[in-house]
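Reproducibility note. Readers wishing to regenerate the assembly model reported in the main text can use the exact inputs given here. Chain order matters: entities are listed in the order in which they were concatenated for prediction.
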Amino acid sequence: MAIDIRIAQFFDLTTTDGTRHLYQNYFVNEVYTYAGQRYNFAPFRAEGSLANNTGDNTIMQVLFPNVEFALRLLDAGNGNRLSRLVLTTVWLTATNAIAANGATQQEFLVGIGASLSETTIELRFRSAIDSVISGFPARSVTRQLVGPLPLNSNVVLQ
Amino acid sequence: MADFPELTPSSRSFTPAVYPQRSFRTLSGVLARRTFGNSPYGAKLDLQYANVADTAVNTLLDHYHSQTAANQRFRLSANITAGMSSDVAGEVTSRAAARGNLRWEYAEPPKVESVRPGIYNVSISLVGEIRDPRTDDA
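Running the prediction on these inputs yields the following structure tokens for the assembly.
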């Protein structure tokens, strides 16, 4: 017995000037139409966590080979600091069709920068907009705001 | 962008393309396999040229240098699949979309062995990579 796992990801990046860059990473050299949009092929890899039990705002990376179109993405997003990303993950059948009853995961992220190496370009994203500086907006947690404060450090955000 | 030289090999060995899959064994013993793309890649083709003359060696080495220096993949000439039925030749050239639409490059530099003055044995290893529509021949 072998479990077959096929996952395609759709990368929808909106850069500074409002241009949308649409890529998918499964159907090689094909323009794949998903949800009414045409996605070109790009061999990217997405990795990172999107949620944890201390709240969200965790970092996710999308790794591209260091090629011309990836550099254009970087440039258009001002170093990926002013871009926003919708990353959709879909599950496929053994015939590479989108599973009719499969789960679809969609994440909304904002760009926080990028890094380059001689072979790769890594675009980094967060799942929430961060404050402009640490401690902004200035608001402190008081008993009036949150009620009785816990006796230990475990805080559950709901 | 030159196709592989029109020289018929003395022998050849072909390994079909592999699929972009990674497997892991679950604790229960069941195998899980993740597929990352819909196109196979990495077919292998080994060619032997036995007792060929200087001109043939020159042609092969020139092709190796020109393609590798330009990082340019190429198509196989009809001589490579000489004697095969069209179906098998189609499998070897791997140009159908279902076979990855591959273009070939040198897996390693050709090996040239001198047999006697002016006569050589040449070994060539090729690997098939997915065609890049921006740079590779149609």
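We highlight two features of this model. Chain A touches chain B at residues 1-7, 25-30, 96 (CB under 8 Å). Strands of chain A lie at 2-14, 20-24, 32-34, 37-41, 45-48, 59-65, 84-91, 104-116, 120-126.
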